[in-house]
Design a protein that fits this description.
alpha+beta; Cysteine Rich Protein; 2 domains; 3-stranded antiparallel sheet; two-stranded antiparallel sheet; muscle alpha-actinin binding; actin binding; metal ion binding; PDZ-LIM_domain; metal-binding
């Protein structure tokens, strides 16, 4: 007999994830325990961008005004939202280096 997810979803013998001694189907485990993307509130499971203290889906980590990506990796933070240079508020805010920039370069 296959274990059942607490949401009454049968799980395949090799297709469940255990949390606190309880089996969860992969879908429910992801929905209940994965970090949430601040852009769409969906679970972040595989690919992500770590920025502003959060994990974002790559498709969601874009300017929150015009949806443009940050090809150079540089974005501006405006009220907790990533924005492009064009949409930063005046007075100018400091640019935030992208997640791939080494820490030593961020301090300069």
């Amino acid at each position: 007999m296959s274990p059942r997810c607490p949401h009454d979803v049968p799980t395949a013998p090799a297709g469940f994830v255990e949390q606190d001694g309880r089996p969860f189907c992969p879908r429910d485990f992801s929905l209940l325990f994965s970090p949430r993307c601040p852009g769409c509130s969906g679970p972040v499971v595989t690919e992500f961008v770590a920025a502003m203290g959060e994990l974002w889906h790559p498709r969601c980590f874009v300017c929150q005004v015009c949806s443009s990506p940050f090809p150079s990796g540089t974005f501006f933070e405006d009220n907790g939202r990533p924005v492009c240079e064009r949409h930063r508020r005046v007075p100018p805010v400091s640019p935030v280096p992208g997640p791939g920039v080494p820490t030593a370069e961020r301090a300069q």
